[in-house]
Amino acid sequence: MNKTAVSRTVANLPHNGYDRLMQPDTLNFYEKVYKVVRCIPPGKVSSYGRIAAMLGHPNAARAVGYALSALRRPDQSGYTAANVPWQRVVNSQGRISIRHREQTANRQAEILRAEGVKVDENGRIDLSVHLWAGLHLVELDDILSDNQQE
Q1: How confident is the model over 93-121, as a mean pLDDT?
Q2: Are 130 and 40 spatial neighbours (Cβ–Cβ below 8 Å)?
Q3: What is this structure's pTM?
Q4: Burial (0-12, 13-18, 19+ Cβ within 10 Å), 107
Q5: Which residues make beta-bridge pairs with 47?
Q6: Neighbours of 71 (CB within 10 A)
Q7: Cβ contacts of residue 89 below 8 Å, gap of 6+?
Q8: Averaged over 71-89, what is the pLDDT?
Q9: What is the full DSSP assignment across 62-83?
Q10: Nearest 5°: phi and psi at 81?
Q11: CA-CA-CA-CA dihedral for 54, 35, 46, 109, to nearest 10
């Protein structure tokens, strides 16, 4: 995804006090989020905060959520909801935390269940079973230093 396309997407996001994350570095941050989330295997989940911490920004859990919300539609090019498994990222309690869009939360649970993740009726996932261990530093460095563009 080129930076202009990401920039247009980022410009439409609510900032909610995260203006410092909405600097030129943010474009790169979003791309890093997408690359890491793509590594989460089916049947596993991670949290917004764990993804942020892996990227060296432990207080940027909301920015990870913003990045996933900024994914393009599946029929578009670049990083999309079809090629970045957004559904595998939940809150730190193992709960689907999309509250303002019930249909999206239901869809997330449905996709996770199809991948073998047990999601209870409250949208909670047992992290002792389904938590992804994450990337080792060498793996993370390899992924993030990859200069290939979508």
Answers
A1: 90
A2: no
A3: 0.78
A4: middle
A5: 90
A6: 22
A7: 37, 40, 45, 46, 47, 48, 51, 64, 65, 68
A8: 94
A9: HHHHHHHHTPBPTTSSSSBTTT
A10: -65, -15
A11: 160
